[in-house]
Amino acid sequence: MADHEHDVLVIGSGAGGGMAAYVLTQSGVKVHMLEAGRDYDPIAETPMFSENRDAPLLGAGTPDKDFGYYNATIDGGWEIDGEPYSTGEDTEFQWWRTRMLGGRTNHWARNSFRMGEYDFKPKTRDGLGFDWPMEYAELAPWYDRVEKLVGVYGVNSGLANHPDSGDAVLQPPPKARVPELFAAAAAADIGIPCVPARRAVLTRDKGDGRSPCFWATDCGRGCNIGAAFQTTTSLLPWARSTGNLTITTNAMVYEITTGDDGKANGARYIDKTTGEHKFIGARAVVLAASAAESARILLNSNARDTGGLANSSGQVGRNLMDTVGSGITGQIPALENRPRYNEDGAMGMHVYVPFWLYEEQAAGQLDFPRGYHLELYSQFSAPGMGSGSGLDGYGPSMLDSARRYYGSFIHFAQRGEMIPNENCYAEIDPDGKDKFGIPILKFHYKHSAHEFAQVAHAQQASIELIERMGGRVVSDVKSPEEAIAAGGVIIHEIGTARMGASAADSVTNSYGQTWNVPNLFILDGAIFASKAHKNPTLTILTLAMRGADHMVNEMKRGAI
Question: Quick one: how many helices (H) and strands (E) in the chain?
């Protein structure tokens, strides 16, 4: 330790980096965190009560603010000036980057579903993909700890492969809205479960300085009362309060360095405010820059002609996956002209449809091998004016039409599991560099017949639910190949440095500890061995807590 100012260097401040910093600093470890984006103060900068009518273009999305003028992504998006990426032939892939302290945790949907026993052993179950080097039972107590720490609302539904939480772990869920109750009744009629969702939003005071949700503002704008989980209102300030955390923002890391012994000894980065190249040494390194960025750093480290750092398996950059996504929107006449009242709630969904056909799938009765869930979105909100809005005429007739249809639309968003395939990977583009001179990533991405068949089933299930509600489909019903979201669009990309049981075919062990560099841990979505239909952030947080705890133990016994 005498050779380094800090015990551990953490690269990235989102879910993985924030949790790692929290666990390490609580154990007395000195941590220096490097974040590529700018500093961000959610207390001062979150526009919780700003009105869209006061914003440019009525708050609509633009190329530099894709999710709306007030979205919490203050810097970043699908495209960043001076930070390009490229794509291979016949590839549709979009890379979302959030250049700010806290990363994507400032604006994510907060949907927090546990992976289950089938999800950790998918190849054992159906012969496809890759098994995780752990069972669900090994991660279950860590899920409990994370859900209690960050605050997740929901209930135990007792459904197959949708694990229950421990006693007194979950926060009470908000009540279902009227359209959600209607959808749940329709689902019950046709034998489909529709249950309270799980989201990382406080509904009760935990006594940790954050306040419970008061059901009034959009979670995507950020939450300066701390009700909607983000690292900038929880993990990072808690870690700072120990006196063991130093954070450097605007630090664009491009290389993890190693000593003569092959161990990591720090990282090189560019100070984005001055353009100066700098180095920080450390006893150990945690890489949590997001799946694709972490792969880029590894591939650009340790002399590129060797295949990058920690890459003896050749798996760095491989197995790139994103959630399978599609959607169907319906308009429900029975919900027209209903009484107006405040239906904001927790802003995100209150109920959802978990996958219900595992037994049929295992019996070979379905033409797709992995599951999906349906996220339900419907509430009183500002009526749209675009295609499919249902509005008629103009002037007074349009106003009457808006009043009639207000709150009568419902959207079913499919979120499904993708199976890794050899056509999906990221590599260093031999001809491209960003404005900092760092070689950029080139993405290759193709869905398989498995994903297309899954989309077809999800679309049909959504249409059946809408029709059972007496509604009509108002969105275009496209072929699965047209309906499926392009790679990266759901912003759940994972898998570029997968964990496994052997250095021969994986990058890390079950703790995120790299096989080749034992004092280098990867604690973000890169280490996922498969892409369950469950949104990945809760599992990233859980793996990071478990991995950082293991790192502490290894440091205590002198192995790191």
Answer: 13, 18
Q: Give the ranges where 430-523 is alpha helix by DSSP (H).
A: 449-468, 480-483
Instruction: Please tell me the pTM assigned to this model.
Output: 0.97
Residues 5, 7, 8, 13, CA torsion sign: negative
Report the distance separating Cα 92 and Cα 88, nearest Å: 9
Provide the strand spans (E) within 133-263: 195-196, 245-248, 251-258
8 CB neighbour count, 10 Å cutoff: 27
Q: Are the C-beta atoms of residues 232 and 102 closer than 8 Å to each other?
A: yes
Question: How large is the C-alpha radius of gyration of the chain?
Answer: 23
Q: What is the pLDDT of residues 225-267, one digit of tens each?
A: 999 999 999 999 999 999 999 999 999 999 999 999 999 999 9
Q: In what helix (H) or strand (E) does residue 236 lie, and over which residues does it extend?
A: helix 235-240
Which two tokens mark 323?
Answer: 């959630």
Cα distances from 60 to residues 52, 238, 378, in angstroms, run 8, 35, 19
461/457 Cα distance (integer angstroms): 6
Residue 153 near residue 135, CB atoms below 8 Å: no
* Segment 428-445, tens digit of pLDDT: 999 999 999 999 999 999
Quote the strand ranges of 324-467, DSSP E: 324-331, 351-353, 372-377, 409-416, 425-433, 439-444
Work out the average pLDDT over 207-220. 94
pLDDT tens digits, residue range 454-491? 999 999 999 999 999 999 999 999 999 999 999 999 99
- Mark 511-541 as b/e (b = at least 16 C-beta within 10 Å): bbbbbbbbbbbbbbbbbbbbbbbbbbbbbbb
Question: Tokens 């007074």, residue?
Answer: 396
Q: Would strands 195-196 and 520-522 be described as parallel, antiparallel, or unpaired?
A: unpaired
Phi, psi of 489 (to 5 degrees): -65, -35
Please give the Cα distance from 556 to 560 (Å, whole number). Answer: 8
| Per-residue DSSP letter, 102 | T
d(CA 301, CA 511): 22
- CB neighbourhood size of 390 (10 A): 16
Name the pLDDT band for 403 (thresholds 50, 70, 90). Answer: confident
Classify residue 515 by its DSSP letter. Answer: S
Query: Is 311 a residue whose pLDDT tops 90?
Result: yes
Contact in structure between 439 and 300 (CB atoms under 8 Å): yes
504, burial (CB in 10 Å: exposed 0-12, middle 13-18, buried 19+): exposed
d(CA 162, CA 556) in angstroms, rounded, equals: 36
What the chain holds in terms of domains, given with CATH numbers, is: 1-42+97-151+229-322+494-560 (3.50.50.60)
Q: How far, in Å, CA of 50 to CA of 545, rounded? A: 35
Q: Are 346 and 174 in contact (CB under 8 A)?
A: yes
Q: Which two tokens stand for residue 524?
A: 């973000």
Q: Which helix (H) or strand (E) holds 285?
A: strand 277-287
CA distance 439 to 9: 22
Among candidate residues 529, 530, 524, the one with its CA nearest the CA of residue 545? 524
**CB contact at 8 A, 6 and 30:** yes
Report how far residue 440's alpha carbon sits from residue 86's, in angstroms, rounded to the nearest whole number: 8
C-alpha 130: how far from chain center: 21
